[in-house]
Specification:
Elements lengths: L4 E2 L6 E2 L2 E4 L14 E4 L1 H9 L1 H7 L9 H20 L2 H11 L3 H9 L3 H9 L6
Antiparallel strand pairs: 1-2, 3-4
Helix pairs in contact: 1-2, 3-4, 3-5, 5-6
Length: 128
């Protein structure tokens, strides 16, 4: 039997959606502090205007720090270049310091979450 989940705003029980308070595409962290479980109705409302929804419901998400964002940008660029030129040392340094992996870099470049990249890769066995 499926587990019933609960909307954190209205208490509705059933199938819920996980919503990023600050969208990942807008530099929101992919962490529990930046996620909220919502019923389908609240999730649809949140998707219309994330900022207004967060303000209306007093939701504070977690934004990527400027230092971490800069490291992610640099790491993503190095990840692409390392594939071509072998600039591995700095990439390894950034990856270790911030705990980034190739999913983080690909997700950042695509503007989606690492879990979405992983799901896509796992669902496409023909990819290298």
């Amino acid at each position: 039997m499926d587990k019933l989940n609960t909307c954190k705003l209205c208490g509705w029980r059933g199938r819920t959606h996980i919503h990023h308070i600050i969208p990942v595409r807008d530099k929101g962290e992919d962490t529990d502090k930046n996620k909220i479980e919502l019923c389908p109705n609240h999730h649809a409302e949140a998707s219309e205007d994330e900022t207004a929804f967060a303000e209306e419901h007093n939701l504070a998400g977690e934004e990527v720090s400027k230092e971490k964002l800069n490291a992610l940008i640099e790491g993503s660029n190095l990840f692409v270049r390392a594939s071509c030129k072998g600039d591995i040392d700095r990439l390894v340094e950034i990856s270790k310091k911030y705990g980034f992996n190739k999913l983080d870099y690909v997700a950042y470049m695509m503007g989606i979450t690492p879990k979405a990249v992983e799901k896509y890769l796992l669902g496409n066995p023909n990819l290298p």
